[in-house]
Task: inverse folding
């Protein structure tokens, strides 16, 4: 797990040997100068920027905490690398032997790291529950067809803090959670948060499938806990929005341009024990009229503020889930065993936490503070460098023309 530890790349009998003598290659000249190509540059790395991750990890003990919750089934007499120092091939073999208990402990380590990243208890946090499509590759355990996505896929659940963008944890699953399963996850998460922050206001946020009759009553019974979730339109909700829809139509016909109207009403679904506040958003434009519904237990929040600034802000959580999946390749879950896929997802999530910590804490005063994960990977981590292992030190030599030299110098001397 300690991917930046130079010792993790030292293979006895291989790295210690002298580079084989290869004849120089003579390339086409440039002007009146001959061009020679030789393989005598010494040990080079294309990932020198990873050294930026060393100090934050040592301060938090993140990789050590992950390694501590895992059992090592290997014969200790034949082990060259501990789990904390393990290389990528070792991890690939190990992920097929991990148990569900160990996976649960890894997920809790991620939650604890999120809590520890706050210097003091926050006044409020937003728990974003967002699942994302992960297409199935071949014959895999628990693979299911999803009609919404039109193919076989898994639906990993990403839990994040909506105000700061911090990743809390990720849960690999074959299909969307039922209300009972969602409540189970929420209860365990809130219990752990309450242990650290007993007075923090926690707001549960999600799309329409989170508005379940199992989840909402439990939230309403808790202190300092509220919710705002999407609500699927139906034959009862549409008449409740009719007056606002007509207002939007008339305003569009009179003024032109995009027209937006908000309205608050009461609604009780057949599976609900009582009526709840529903916020209606109606948008009129040249494309017609669109109606959206949100259900909440926050009775006194202003209608427009609640919809635009509290509910719609979950779009950022969706962007972060996409960044997690596309930049860190967390949808490469081609293992056959379901537990192996969950292990791989958690490892990708650990990498996301590393880069997010770099972005929020190390780069907080630099333009890179708002960069995507892909930008950080390509421009900050993928740096060519010469690595020399001397008697008393390891020397890393970066190019004189390194484009991010000021950033590295400032970040490594904080």
Result:
């Amino acid at each position: 797990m300690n991917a930046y530890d130079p010792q993790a790349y030292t293979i006895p009998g291989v790295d210690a040997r002298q580079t084989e003598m290869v004849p120089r290659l003579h390339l086409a000249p440039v002007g009146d100068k001959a061009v020679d190509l030789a393989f005598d540059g010494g040990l080079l790395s294309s990932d020198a920027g990873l050294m930026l991750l060393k100090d934050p990890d040592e301060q938090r003990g993140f990789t050590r905490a992950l390694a501590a919750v895992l059992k090592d089934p290997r014969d200790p007499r034949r082990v060259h690398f501990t789990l904390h120092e393990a290389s990528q091939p070792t991890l690939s073999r190990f992920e097929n032997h991990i148990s569900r208990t160990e996976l649960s402990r890894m997920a809790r380590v991620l939650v604890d790291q999120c809590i520890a990243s706050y210097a003091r208890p926050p006044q409020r946090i937003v728990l974003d529950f967002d699942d994302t499509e992960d297409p199935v590759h071949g014959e895999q355990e628990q693979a299911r067809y999803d009609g919404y996505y039109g193919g076989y896929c898994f639906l990993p659940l990403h839990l994040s803090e909506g105000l700061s963008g911090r990743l809390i944890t990720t849960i690999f699953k074959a299909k969307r959670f039922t209300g009972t399963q969602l409540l189970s996850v929420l209860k365990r998460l809130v219990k752990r948060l309450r242990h650290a922050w007993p007075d923090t206001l926690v707001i549960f946020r999600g799309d329409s499938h989170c508005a379940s009759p199992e989840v909402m009553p439990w939230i309403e019974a808790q202190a300092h806990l509220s919710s705002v979730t999407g609500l699927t339109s139906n034959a009862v909700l549409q008449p409740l929005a009719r007056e606002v829809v007509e207002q939007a139509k008339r305003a569009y016909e009179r003024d032109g341009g995009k027209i937006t109207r908000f309205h608050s009403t009461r609604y009780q679904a057949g599976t609900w024990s009582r009526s709840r506040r529903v916020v209606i958003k109606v948008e009129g434009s040249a494309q017609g009229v669109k109606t959206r519904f949100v259900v909440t237990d926050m009775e006194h929040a202003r209608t427009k503020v609640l919809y635009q600034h509290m509910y719609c802000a979950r779009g950022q959580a969706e962007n972060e889930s996409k960044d997690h999946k596309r930049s860190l390749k967390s949808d490469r879950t081609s293992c056959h065993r379901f537990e192996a896929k969950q292990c791989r997802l958690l490892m990708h999530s650990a990498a996301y936490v590393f880069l997010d910590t770099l972005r929020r804490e190390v780069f907080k005063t630099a333009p890179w503070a708002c960069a995507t994960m892909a930008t950080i990977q390509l421009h900050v981590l993928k740096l060519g460098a010469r690595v020399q292992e001397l008697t008393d030190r390891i020397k890393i030599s970066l190019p004189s023309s390194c484009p991010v030299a000021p950033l590295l110098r400032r970040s490594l001397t904080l």
Notes: Confidence is low (pLDDT under 50) at residues 1-19. The radius of gyration is 26 Å. The longest helix spans residues 338-362. Residues 95-362 form one domain.
